[in-house]
Specification:
The structure is a single chain. This protein is an all-alpha fold and 311 residues long. About 2% of the residues have low confidence. It has a single domain, classed as Orthogonal Bundle (Farnesyl Diphosphate Synthase). The protein is built from 15 helices and 2 strands. It is globular, with a radius of gyration of 19 Å. The protein has a two-stranded antiparallel sheet with strand order 1-2. Helix 1 crosses helix 3 and helix 3 crosses helix 9. A hairpin with a 2-residue loop joins strand 1 and strand 2.
Length: 311
C-alpha cells in the first residue's frame, strides 16, 4: 500500500529479525535522547525546577512512543528529522505522566526506572511542578516541527485528545476508582487501559501518519495497529509485575497487587493473560495489512517483541 496514493500489487510482508529490530529501536531512541538533552535550553526557569524536569526526562527507557512516531513518519515517506521536536514532545508528556503517577496521592511509588521517583529525589511540590512544566512545554516544542500548519495542527489535536481527560488523564482516574474494587469486570479493565496506556501509544503512531499527510486508509490502519500494540503492551506489563524482579522492572515488583490494582493476571490468570497478549500482537501485525517495507517490518517485529518480554 502506498501511504499517500493508490495501492500497489500485493506483496508479502517483509520479516525483520529481532536483533535488527532492536538495533533500529536503539538507534532511533539514541536520536531522541540527543534531542531531549537540549529541549529545555533557552527556557528561563528556577534551577531546581530544571534539574527536576531533566532528572526524570533523562532517566532512560526505550523511548517507545517517540520511536513509534518517527517510524510511522518514515513509513509514510517523510524525513524523521523534520518531526523530531514533535516526537520528543511525546516523551515529555509521557514523562510528566510518570512523575505524577508516582506521587503519594496516586500510586505512591518510590522507584522509577531504577532511581528514586521524582518526589523522592526532590520533593512533592517540585515533582508536581516538574510534571506541569513538561506537559505544557511539550506543546511549545511540537510547534518547532518543520511541518505545514494543517497537518501539524491535526497531529497536535490528536495528541491532546490522547493525553487529556478522554485519554491518559481519564484512564488514570478510572485506575484510582477501580483500585481495590473486586467487582471490576474485564470490559472495564480494558477500557481503563485503552485510555491510560493505549491512547498515547496509539496517538504516537497516528500523529506520525498525520504529520506525513498519509491517506485516510493508512491513518486508520496505523491507528488500529497502535491500539492493539497499546493493549499488548499493558497486558505484558501486568504479567511482568508479578513475574519479573525489581531490578528488571526499574520499579518495585508486585506493586500492582500490593496496591489492590485490578490487572489481567488477577482477573483471568497468567496463562490466559499471555494468550490475550499474543492475540493483541497478532491483531497489531494484521492491522498493517498491505503496508510493506522496512518500517512496516519494524512495526510488526516490535509487536512481537512487546509480548515476548512476558510470554
Amino acid at each position: 500500500m502506498n501511504p499517500k496514493g493508490p495501492e500497489h500489487m500485493p506483496q508479502p510482508p517483509e520479516i525483520m529479525e529481532p536483533a535488527a529490530m532492536k538495533e533500529l529501536l536503539k538507534r532511533r531512541a539514541a536520536a531522541v535522547e540527543l534531542w531531549l538533552a537540549t529541549c529545555l535550553d533557552g527556557r528561563e526557569m528556577p534551577p531546581r525546577l530544571r534539574e527536576s524536569m531533566l532528572y526524570s526526562l533523562q532517566a532512560g527507557g526505550k523511548r517507545l512512543r517517540p520511536v513509534l512516531c518517527l517510524t510511522c513518519v518514515a513509513l509514510c515517506g517523510l524525513e524523521e528529522e523534520r518531526v523530531m521536536p514533535f516526537a520528543g514532545a511525546i516523551e515529555m508528556i509521557h514523562t510528566y505522566s510518570l512523575i505524577h503517577d508516582d506521587l503519594p496521592a496516586m500510586d505512591d511509588d518510590d522507584l522509577r526506572r531504577g532511581k528514586p521517583s521524582n518526589h523522592k529525589a526532590f520533593d512533592e511540590a517540585t515533582a508536581i511542578l516538574a510534571g506541569d512544566g513538561l506537559l505544557t512545554d511539550a506543546f511549545a516544542c511540537m510547534c518547532r516541527a518543520r511541518i505545514a500548519a494543517g497537518p501539524l495542527l491535526a497531529a497536535i489535536a490528536e495528541l491532546a485528545g490522547a493525553a487529556g481527560s478522554s485519554g491518559m488523564v481519564g484512564g488514570q482516574e478510572w485506575d484510582m476508582i477501580h483500585t481495590g474494587r473486586p467487582s471490576v469486570n474485564l470490559g472495564e479493565l480494558q477500557t481503563m487501559h485503552a485510555m491510560k496506556t493505549g491512547a498515547l501509544l496509539r496517538a504516537s503512531c497516528v500523529c506520525g501518519a498525520l504529520l506525513a499527510e498519509a491517506n485516510s486508509a493508512v491513518v486508520d490502519a496505523i491507528g488500529e495497529y497502535g491500539s492493539a500494540l497499546g493493549m499488548a503492551f499493558q497486558i505484558a506489563d501486568d504479567i511482568l509485575d508479578i513475574t519479573a524482579d525489581t531490578a528488571v522492572l526499574g520499579k518495585p515488583a508486585g506493586s500492582d497487587a500490593a496496591q489492590g490494582k485490578n490487572t489481567y493476571p488477577s482477573m483471568v490468570g497468567l496463562a490466559a493473560s499471555r494468550e490475550l497478549a499474543r492475540a493483541q500482537a497478532d491483531r497489531a501485525r494484521a492491522a498493517l495489512g498491505a503496508l510493506v517495507g522496512p518500517e512496516a517490518a519494524f512495526l510488526r517485529a516490535l509487536a512481537d517483541y512487546t509480548v515476548s518480554r512476558a510470554c
